[in-house]
Design brief:
The chain has 138 residues and is α/β, with parallel strands linked by helices. The protein folds into two domains: 55 residues; 70 residues, no CATH class. It has seven helices and three strands. Strands 1-2-3 form a three-stranded parallel β-sheet. The longest helix has 15 residues. The protein starts with a helix and ends in a 6-residue tail after the last helix.
């Protein structure tokens, strides 16, 4: 699976980040935008990030395989966690992308079924579930 395929799977899901740039770098970006190479600052920055990810795609693939990460989007529903609880099993969540715990999952159910969480990307859950799992999020 390529990094490009991951972006296609992720669809419209995105997270906002903030970066600090020196004024000279920012000026050079604005010059490239003004000259028509990019439509705006975000376009240039997004393109630069994608180029770097493509350059390192093999390292990402190898690391994902070695560390057994789920690549892309992973959603855990209340029914999923209730089934794990009934089976006496627990999750070790490892996701590169987006991990989501459904909003109807109680903090008690999350604590009973999730041993650890490692997410490289974004983790969405209710504030109560995040608080309950705080010591298990790495």
């Amino acid at each position: 699976m390529s990094v490009h395929e991951l972006r296609q799977k992720a669809g419209e899901v995105s997270e906002k980040i903030t970066i600090n740039l020196g004024v000279v770098d920012l000026g050079q970006i604005d010059l490239l935008v003004q000259e028509g190479f990019y439509s705006n600052r975000t376009d240039l920055i997004r393109t630069a990030i994608r180029n770097q990810l493509a350059t390192h795609a093999e390292v990402v693939r190898e690391t994902v395989a070695r560390k057994t990460f789920v690549l892309g989007l992973q959603r855990y529903t209340r029914a999923d966690l209730e089934a794990l609880q009934a089976a006496g099993q627990k999750l070790q969540i490892q996701v590169l992308g987006l991990a989501t715990i459904a909003t109807d999952v109680s903090p008690e159910l999350a604590l009973a079924t999730i041993d650890s969480i490692v997410v490289l990307g974004a983790f969405h859950a209710s504030p109560a579930v995040k608080a309950a799992l705080a010591d298990r999020i790495h």
